[in-house]
Amino acid sequence: MRGSIVGIEDGLTSPKPGSWHGMFLELLDNLYAACVIGPLVVGYWRGTWNLMGEYIYPSDLPTSLMISLALGVFGHLVFNIFQGPLRSHLNADKHRLVYYIASRLYTEIYGTVCVNTWRGGWEIINLYTTHNVLYVVVITLVCAVLLALLRGLRNITASPFVVVIDSRREYFDVPTYFKLSGSKQPGLYILDCMFSVLVIGSLVVFVWRGLWVLLDMELFPEDKALSAWASVLIGYGVTAVTFSLQPLMRWTCDRLTGIWRVIVADLFLFFSFIGTINVWRGVWQLLDHYFLPENRLLSNWITHVASLLLLILLNCSNSVLVRGVYIDAEEPAGQCVVFPVYYIRLFFQKERTKKQKKILESLNRVEFNNVVIVDKKPNTKVEQNHQINRNLDAVPLTIIDNPKSNGDHNTHENKQ
């Protein structure tokens, strides 16, 4: 879900200085991620989380949480281990309708698995630990440091700093920590999946839960509505600053190497995380407070169903999934601090590619026609057309077969 080098291989890196068109499209992408995708993802999680509490042993909270955690961990391991068979058997080129239905069903099931994992782990911690500020701060910092030492801190990133396009080629890909192959090393691959889910995933939950609980305790705890609005303002303020700082941070990381580049990238990612968690907390609690508070069950069902359907229609449904493990500062130079927020730019890239292909095809047809009449009119038209093709070769074309848009930097073609 976090994303990696999406956009780099498609020529969609940060716009060049003075490129107003590129800067405008980047701004639109950032606004789209923050104002559309982010709230929809939060709405889906809020509705699903609360529905699990309504239907899984609602009268016995400890049992409910243990079942959620077990379902979540087991489901994560299944989707990690069997991603290869899913990818090979659900092929959009062979059975488009079957693929589309099965892939969206996959998103709904996997999304429910993700929410259960977090609900089980999060609420069990709440149930059996104290809400002392110092205790929460220490545990949160220890888990964040452990993630940084494992070079996995970037896994705390989520919407609005990630937009996951439902790419056919990478729809079922779940990168693991050690990037082992299931076909070549099945035993080690299962251990890799378990480490990714049980260790990295648990540390991420601890960090998220710690900062969220601190906000609950310290940010207007006596007034939930005011606290929610404050989180929204802080979250979107930090989000705006973070997006604005990307060019500077990219310039900085371009000039750093080794451990210093990782440290700077991690600090920037953690700053963005403060914005992320405030956006999630604010939107979540505003929905609790204002959206059908007298009928919570209906409110939860609407946010669950409507959010997922809208994300499917927008081709961003996989944005709700928390899957895979990504390594800090893995990308070249300053790309490690560029957030994978590509939606509008990919659309324009596809349209530009279509036009380039049409130009190339038409020039090839002209050349073919001229070659046919070469005996009657030697040298003139053919030479002109060869010159056109030579000029075209000198222009870099960005040909995208299937743009990488889901943020999985290790596809089955180059990593698994």
UniProtKB/TrEMBL annotation:
It comes from the Eukaryota. It holds the Pfam family Fuseless. The chain crosses the membrane at residues 24-45, 65-85, 133-150, 188-208, 228-246, 258-281, 301-322. Keywords: Membrane, Transmembrane, Transmembrane helix. The keyword Transmembrane helix applies. PANTHER family: FUSELESS, ISOFORM A. This is Fuseless.
